[in-house]
Amino acid sequence: MSHTAHIPSHRKPRRSASKLAVRAGVAGGVLSTLAMAGTASASPSAEPVAETTLEMPVLNLDLGADVSSAVTVAAENTRLAAVEGELTAQEESARTGAAAEAKQAKEEAQKKADAEKAEKTAKEEAVRKAEAERSSRSSGSERTTLKSTAAPQGTGTVSAPATGSAAAIVNFARAQVGKAYVMGGTGPSSFDCSGLVQAAYRQAGITLPRMSQAQSSEGTSVSLSALQPGDILYWGSRGSAYHVAIYVGGGKFVGAQNPSTGIVERNLSYDKPTGAVRVL
């Protein structure tokens, strides 16, 4: 054994041939690739790479015009709504006004009718008073005095049936019982109070004034306790009576009372008269 066998060597170990070959191959591949890239970039005859450009659709929007149009439409709708509201208010006002005018016209018509009625009543009253005055002045010359059976004092009845002119008056008055009362009626189917008295006295050939006021001024006043058939009963004051009837004897009278009862025969107690006059 050599005396140098245990001394390590200072030389680098040799690489294996296989590893060297692999590294050489890799390096050669890299250099080849770089060479090809440089050649390609330097070659003027190389075709350029085609680029593709996508065209986007163009939106041609006029936002100002659209906003203006929308505002105009909104303003027009608001105006139309205001006009419609105003028209509705005017229609309601017109209906209310028409109702008020109709009510006022009705009230005025009623007032006018009441005024005309009052005026008519006043004229009729004036005519009645004038007739009463004329009748009072001429009653002495126009009065016809007839005899009749006297009634006992305090009884209001007669001791014997009516005769002569009184009988004619009483019989006519009783024959009208059941007929209608009509204001202004003078027969033959309907009467008012003074119309009945006038028609009854006509049966005895006696002409009486038409109105109750004047009839109550005819003849002479008699007590209600001394009545005779044919006497004229009156309600109210003599000369201004508002109702008249005919005493028919037995404590009863016949009169055209009102539209509800018509011509009736009633006891004196049914509607006690104010006074009485005797024309017969």
Task: Describe this entry's structure for a reader.
This protein is α+β, with helices and mostly antiparallel strands. It has a domain of 136 residues: endopeptidase domain like (from Nostoc punctiforme) (endopeptidase fold (from Nostoc punctiforme)), CATH 3.90.1720. 47% of the residues lie in helices and 12% in strands. The chain contains 5 helices and 8 strands, in the order αααββααββββββ. A 6-stranded antiparallel beta sheet has the order 3-8-4-5-6-7. The chain has a two-stranded parallel ribbon with strand order 1-2. A hairpin with a 3-residue loop joins strand 6 and strand 7. Helix 3 packs across helix 4. The longest helix has 80 residues. It is rod-shaped, with a radius of gyration of 68 Å. About 8% of the residues have low confidence.
What structural class should be given to the helix and strand makeup? Answer: alpha+beta
Question: Could you say what the CATH topology of the domain at 143-278 is called?
Answer: endopeptidase fold (from Nostoc punctiforme)
Please report which band the strand proportion falls in: under 5%, 5-15%, 15-25%, 25-35%, 35-45% or over 45%. Answer: 5-15%
Detail the poorly predicted runs: 138-159
Q: Quick one: biggest sheet?
A: 6 strands, antiparallel
Topology:
Elements: H1 17-42, H2 63-142, H3 164-175, E1 180-181, E2 190-191, H4 193-202, H5 212-215, E3 220-222, E4 232-235, E5 243-249, E6 252-258, E7 262-267, E8 275-278
Parallel strand pairs: 1-2
Antiparallel strand pairs: 3-8, 4-5, 4-8, 5-6, 6-7
Helix pairs in contact: 3-4
